[in-house]
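Q: Could you fold this chain for me?
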Amino acid sequence: MANKIKQYGFKSNRPKVYLIATPIGNLQEMTPRAIDVIKNNVQKIYCEDTRNTLKLLNYFNLKKKLVSLNKENEIERFTEMINDLTANLSIAIISDAGYPLISNPGYYAVHKILAEYPYDVVPISGANAALNAIVSSGLNPKHFLFFGFLDKTKTKKTNELAQIAQLPYPVIFYEAPHRLLETLKLIFTVLGDRQIAVVKELTKIYEQWYRGSCQEVLTFLAEEENVAFGEYVIVVDGFTCEPKSIVADEVWGHKLFGGWCFI
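A: Sure. Below is the predicted structure, expressed as structure tokens.
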């Protein structure tokens, strides 16, 4: 039981699972610590896409065995991970960009290892799109909710938005380029014309920001070229107790909290 409660991380001699953050755009976001851990502490890397990870390793002159890890094969790969750890090998889990597990694969393995096995899980810090977006959004970052990706279907997406409609602090979403305008229209419908910030291609040469009311940003983006390219982060301001959305008011007021208002 003690092994499941207390962990020393780097001080222990047990095999480790390193959760290594990778660049979200600029390759210089790869930290010296991450490079050192991959070079000297890791025997195998479980990664979202072996092709992308190979390019990253080649850039830093690193060579490690790569194994794909995605939402389709995560349960299957778990057995291989345990075999590696049992053989006294330390492994890394990384995604194509940013932190593993955060809208990326890895949760199943980490949860099972911490719950059932005596191995250490060690995070290696790095870039994160959500944090970059919130601190540069112009919205108050004292408290915020990271939501990640909304559901792809309109009905479920509407319900998800309605359930967070009266949170009094900003909410951060990730969105694919081909769904951006549709999602912003739904945000406008459900949450009202709030202040938002939208950013694409964070830390890359073509990084672009759009700030203003939801309607202003929507109108501007509708006339922009190349909207359907790049990965987006959307930051939406919190609820201010002014009813702006019939959809959200109905779902929140009648189904959830009886019309309570955060102030």
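A (continued): Residues 252-263 have pLDDT under 50 and may be disordered.
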